[in-house]
Amino acid sequence: MYKKSHKIRNFIFSIVAVILLSVIGYFLYDTYINIAITPEYEIKRTGSTINSETVENAIQNSNSVADMLEKVSQSVVGISKIKSRSNSIFSNNSISELGLGTGIIVSSNGYILSNCHVTGEELSTCYITLENGYTYDGSVVWCDVDLDLSITKINATNLPYATIGDSSLAKSGETVYAIGNPIGYEFRRTITSGIISATNRTIKIEEDNNVSYMTDLIQTDASINPGNSGGPLILPNGEVIAVNTVKITSAEGIGFAVPINVVKPVIEKFINNNKFDEPFLGIYAYDKEVIPYIATTPNFSSGIYVVHIDSNSPAISSGIQTGDIITSIDGKVINNMIELKEFIYSKSPGDTISINISRGYVTRTFDIVLTKK
């Protein structure tokens, strides 16, 4: 009797235990599936820094960059020095037949910024094809061979034009985009991206047994091919900070662009006055970045080293000599040739400037009246 009673109690206990475990299991399951998993919890649980807001922001940023590049592309033109038989300069053999390059519309009334080697020198003619396919005869109204920059005018109005930025604020590591016509019709207005690899770069150029230096360049790994010359280098906010000019063909991912600030005074004068009376100083100088390339080894930490004075310039009779180090002009510190040119371009023929120089242990100031080039 006792054994029978014990078996009954064990049976009842087992039933109760099963029922209790079932109830507890159901309760835990119901609680789990109704837990609101917040982004913060998800980050902690998975170790990920991505949440729905991050993804949404990334999508929005991607869309805004695409929209920006689409807008800037409308101000990018194709340039050729040879007139095509068709209505457009774009053809299947544009590079070999037409010397196709790129330009940037910088005003609504038809001023276009590019490279000298793309458009030709001042007073020459080139041919401009806009984004809408129309081609215009272009007159080169200004060119600086040393900078490899030019401005061309076409007879057109209400054109979409690029926003000019401040190249002095450019920093290594910033994202940039390049737009150009690298090969021809099939690849017109190609967009590439990269970063600013470095600023204030100097490169040595040897052409026709002549050696020259391009200084204060912006280096980028955004893909730049021959037809990209003259095209814009753009920040994510849509501002153009440089003009693509050369690529080192012996290395991959190394391209260069001329900072936009040097040409801003020229653009402004053309837009405001429809002309630019170029002031002339007649001094060519190297900054300290160029010194390792030349035979002489002057020791200076700032300023620019005078290597040439034009025989027909206002500077020749001022008392400045080759070997002098220009430290400032009108109180503005000058550390490279780009800064010197930017300052001179902001002046007009007839203006007087004061140049401070260092000559060994002697410092002097020279007043020079700029002439018209």
Summarize the structure.
This protein is α+β, with helices and mostly antiparallel strands. 24% of the residues lie in helices and 34% in strands. The strands form 4 sheets. A 6-stranded antiparallel beta barrel has the order 1-2-3-6-5-4. A 6-stranded antiparallel β-barrel has the order 8-9-10-13-12-11.
Give structural attributes.
single chain, 373 residues, alpha+beta, Thrombin, subunit H, Pdz3 Domain, 6-stranded antiparallel β-barrel, 34% strand
Describe the structure.
- The protein is α+β, with helices and mostly antiparallel strands.
- It is 24% helix and 34% strand.
- The protein folds into three domains: 72-153, Thrombin, subunit H (Beta Barrel); 163-267, Trypsin-like serine proteases (Thrombin, subunit H), CATH 2.40.10.10; 277-372, PDZ domain (Pdz3 Domain).
- It contains seven helices and 21 strands.
- The strands form four sheets. Strands 1-2-3-6-5-4 form a six-stranded antiparallel β-barrel. Strands 8-9-10-13-12-11 form a six-stranded antiparallel beta barrel.
